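Example with several molecule types.
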Amino acid sequence: MEVLAETVRWFLDGANWAGRNGIPARLLQHLLLSAVPSVIAAALAIPPALWLAHRRRAEFFANAVVNVGRAVPSFGVVVLLAVFWITRGWDFAFWPLVVALVLLAVPPMFTNAYAGVADVDPALVEAARGMGLTERQVLIDVELPAALPVLLAGVRIAIVQVVATVALGAVVTSRTGGFGVYIVNGFARLRDGGDVVVLAGAILVALLTLATERGFGLVERAVLPRSLPAVHLPAQPPSHG
Amino acid sequence: MIPPAQSAAPFVRWDWIGRHLDDIWEATVEHLTLTGLAVGIGLAISLALSLWSLRSARRFAVVTSVASVLYSLPSLSAFALLVPFFGLTRTTAVVPLVSYTLLILVRNIVTGIRAVDPAVREAAIGMGYTRAALLWRIEMPLALPVIVAGLRIATVTVVGLVTVASLIGYGGLGGLILSGLRRSIIFPTEIVVGTVGAILLAAVLDGALLLLQRLLTPWRRAAQGV
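Resulting structure tokens for the full complex:
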């Protein structure tokens, strides 16, 4: 258990809290790399999902998205995107990783937004139409609030997955990947005290992922009315692979 | 060694694939072995946990909350956490993979058994079935579609996660992804083969499990959704 004591010492060492490879800098990088793709994916996935579900279009497509999304290994997507970039002579850094993460975050967001609206009680929708609401009002004022718990669960799943996958970016280059850099750098010199850095990085990535999940859970509770509790769906596999 | 692709070379070089079918096959077999081990061990543990927690809401809550935490661990993190203790071994690769199957499998096994029509259960007890016979001969078979649905999700998930285990040297097709990246000049073909291979493997296993379920539950003629 020597490695545990050394890991504690690693965290207490001031040198690991300073500079471009320090914990605060890597945390900021990890957070930025998580937030930007999450926002872009939400903007790309949710509006069309809501509209398509409202019009009951593309049901087959919505189902297929989940299954395909689950089967595509995130590791492969990140590396393929990186390679596509690099073979074109472009620099792999922030944006290509963002593109890969957007691709991974879109399926759970799309599917849950779609399922949320599609599962709204048809009687409710009929009643709203009967009261003279326009289609737009039906979607925004009736279906969207009713779909919110399922929709937000999808957003949570996607964001947690993004936070976990950011770390894989470090496999391509240590200039990106947030806390994942510690894991990958540690692997590179495993016999030379690298196991401590690997463990420290693993702990940081895990804590950040769990904190994101809990944090978003609090947002859900704050946003949702008491009558619509947050949904706990079996999450997509984290980080996947 | 193969000469690495020049930047003018096509993204996918079919001739390379043709000359390396053996390597691709070997990676696929390793991928299958790791997936089979993880899902097999995961199923055994999940069955035990499900039987232990089946009739107790409290036990079920304990099992699912522990399994949820394991499930939320990023895979890279999970492999990395074990490296200082087990080194770069197959154990380090398989333990996290197993842990990812537990939540999915336990949930589906317990939900499937609980969803059995109480009238069916009553009838079986009336016919003199013991508790064990009721479980294995009535409840389990009736829950099979839900259990297999869980197995399909777990299997597809594990196939994807195995690729990450390439970082500790046991990644099956993921090993191709990593080696394509780590060559002195990046070789996209190998990365495409690894990624597409993993997707195809997931699809084939998913279909095989669906077929297995149809064969095992001949009384359900109607197509089953997940």
